[in-house]
Design brief:
The protein has 529 residues and is an alpha/beta fold. It has 19 helices and 17 strands. It starts with a helix and ends in a 5-residue tail after the last helix.
């Protein structure tokens, strides 16, 4: 190669090298090509207007699976706790983490709960999507169409384990005319409690109850140097006390089985209050006040529970709550000293033809035990969850899933062993697995006594059903509560209290239709147990 040719070739090579090292021209907006890497795979989208291609790799994290109720809120109404509201508030965030649904719990005083639900639904305000309330009220919400029918929800929900819910609670607390309208979260019976370190044999009759209360009243029962009480019973007006008079009265009014009923005559719907049995019941109930705290007429159930667990009461009446509150080491001084019993009974019962009390025998008291007629009272029935029929469909679904979640054994079988929840056993498995109660802090004997008292009440052929007729709230929470409270306070006489209850109940029955009310009352007495 000659020197001129060599120089020419060398010049071309230098130019080529310089061109290779020069920066690329910035692409115009029309030539930008985006490249996104998705899980290591590069996808290129081209806009072919020029020959320049830019490749950009972007790391994108895998997206989590969407939660079914993301962004949904469920507004639930119940009463001022801490019981009942506590487990809803505690488990709400767990449910939100699982489903995305946020559960907002609003609480109101018990005396306002019924009317708050009714007004909200009847006016179409629908500020609440669901309620946890007394199942006996459901008839007043079902007939006008305010509460959602849950039958298909339950039928398609194997996780709920519906058949494990005891038959009584599936029927009385959840169903109306063959359909399911609520999900039971709790099981309620009134029971008696006594101090096992003080009392060897619990009272079988109300006379024995008064005798034991008298014996221990004024003694120092917890070692703090102060005199304590023979009996502690909640008697506060406009609270949850009005059920307790039925504990006493029912043992003398109903003796021939659950279908006999304890509130009305089966042929005339006449109130069963103007008779010797109800009079004696008021006298006994009033007599217990002499052996109670000085302010007993102003005590709600939370107050009397606290008195019992602090060791200040020899006897008490309550739902199942005292049994589990007594095992809380932070608040109870009566651990392994709390016995539970079926409600005391009577050796005399009402002759409905004459209105007089007669002695128990095989005819008058076919279910008596050792001559004593026991009539355990299924007061209230157990807190249950119902859904507002006016809520949006997705909110209804979320509300149902929340109640199902609360009621499923994984959650429910734990919550019923915790005193502050206010939830008492209602599933068959909760009675069979007694080890769960021992694990929660009960001694084997205490667990046996506690669950045995509830089982004996539930199995009794003479169990007393609470009212579940239209406007039962007016019969009991308004009329009965007012008259009993006024009598206990000395504002009216016993006879005036009797007349006030009788006239008030008759007025409601006439207003709503005697035949209609009687038909519903008779239908409720055939509940499955």
């Amino acid at each position: 190669m000659n020197s001129k040719l060599f120089m020419f070739v060398s010049l071309l090579m230098v130019i080529a090298m310089l061109a290779a090292c020069a920066p690329a021209a910035a692409p115009t907006p029309e030539t930008v090509i985006e490249t996104v890497e998705v899980e290591k795979e590069v996808v290129v989208t081209e806009v072919v207007e020029k020959e320049v291609i830019v490749t950009q790799e972007v790391e994108v994290a895998p997206q989590p699976e969407a939660l079914p109720y993301e962004g949904v809120e469920v507004d639930v109404l119940t009463f001022t706790g801490p019981q009942i509201a506590e487990p809803l508030q505690r488990r709400g965030p767990d449910f939100e983490a699982l489903t995305g649904a946020k559960v907002n719990v609003t609480i109101v005083p018990f005396s306002d709960l019924y009317q708050k639900i009714l007004t909200d639904a009847a006016t179409g305000t629908n500020a609440f999507d669901a309620w946890v309330f007394a199942p006996q009220w459901m008839v007043d919400f079902i007939v006008p169409g305010y509460v959602e029918n849950l039958s298909e929800y339950v039928a398609n929900d194997p996780d709920l384990e519906w058949e494990d819910v005891a038959p009584f609670f599936r029927d009385f607390s959840a169903s109306y005319e063959g359909d399911i309208y609520t999900i039971p979260l709790d099981g309620d019976f009134h029971m008696g409690y006594y101090r096992t370190d003080l009392i060897d044999t619990p009272p079988k009759t109300w006379d024995e109850y008064l005798a034991i209360a008298s014996e221990f009243h004024g003694q120092d029962l917890n070692g703090d140097g102060d005199p304590d009480y023979g009996s502690c019973i909640s008697k506060k007006r406009a609270a949850q006390a009005y059920w307790f008079i039925t504990d006493v009265a029912a043992s003398m009014i109903q003796s021939k089985g659950t279908a006999e009923g304890a509130f009305f005559d089966l042929e005339t719907m006449e109130p069963l209050v103007d008779n010797e049995a109800f009079r004696k019941a008021l006298e006994i109930y009033d007599a217990t006040t002499a052996f109670g705290p000085p302010d007993e007429l102003n005590l709600d159930v939370g107050d009397t529970r606290g008195l019992f667990t602090s060791g200040r009461c020899a006897l008490s009446l309550d739902w199942g709550d005292i049994g589990t509150l007594a095992i809380d080491p932070d608040t109870s001084v009566v651990m392994d000293m709390t016995g539970a019993m079926i409600l005391p009974g009577s050796t005399q019962v009402l002759d409905r033809e004459t209105g007089a009390l007669v002695d128990c025998d095989e005819t008058t008291c076919p279910y008596a035990v050792d001559g004593v007629n026991h009539a355990p009272f299924a007061a209230y029935g157990g807190w249950s969850g119902g859904i507002n029929a006016g809520a949006d469909d997705i909110v209804k679904n979320a509300a149902y899933d929340f109640f199902s979640y609360m009621a499923q054994p994984a959650q429910a079988n734990e919550d019923v062993t915790i005193g502050i929840t206010g939830f008492n056993p209602y599933r068959t498995s909760q009675f069979l697995n007694r080890q769960a109660w021992v694990d929660a802090g009960m001694s084997p004997q205490a667990a046996s006594d506690y669950l045995g008292a509830i089982e004996a009440s539930l199995a009794s052929p003479n169990m007393v059903l609470d009212l579940r007729i239209p406007q039962n709230q007016r019969y009991q929470q308004v009329t009965l509560d007012q008259a009993v409270a006024q009598f206990m306070a000395g504002e009216i006489t016993l006879e005036e209290a009797i007349q006030q209850i009788y006239d008030g109940w008759e007025e409601i029955t006439e207003e709503l239709g005697r035949e209609d009310q009687l038909a519903v009352y008779l239908a409720t007495l055939g509940v499955q147990k």
